[in-house]
Amino acid sequence: MAQDAPLPPVRSARPAQTRALMARTGLDEARIEALVRRFYDKVRADPELGPIFAARISDWEPHLARMVDFWSSVALMTGRYHGAPVPRHMGLGARWAHFARWLELFRETAAETCPPEGAAFVVERAERIARSLHMAIEDAGRPAGAAPRL
Ligand code: HEM
To answer: Where are its TM segments located (predicted)?
Structure first.
């Protein structure tokens, strides 16, 4: 009887869930890495976002590796990212207009590097995380006890 071809190994804390997400979204590590690299190429060349990143990041490879782990954790539930993004975004001077441009470049890159289901999946998550990051940094910038801006 013919044996099923062995599945390629996945680097994940939850391999079964990761495989299910890969099947549902058409995403895998190679696509995520292509998305991340192409996205940050655009970000670095962008007149509004480029300087904000350049002021913080001089060695890009560790940042890109961290972002591949982040997106792999978000999209494929591999559990590879262990960080705290909120404090990293404090003091960057990023306003909502910067987040909107970030999202525009992210949507564009997702469409170029991912199948439609995968692109929709990562874009929806990016939009949610951008909103919550923005809210967190706005809140942190307000004096203690000030009413939230609704
Ligand atoms: C205006 C938009 C944004 C700007 C200017 C920005 C800028 C940056 C910068 C400069 C860093 C490096 C910080 C450092 O190492 O000191 C960073 C890290 C990071 N960013 Fe953003 N970012 C933006 C939006 C986002 C969004 C929307 C997400 C998620 C969907 C995100 C996820 C991350 C993560 C996961 C890290 C790594 C944090 C760590 O060190 O663990 N960023 N970002």
So the answer is: none
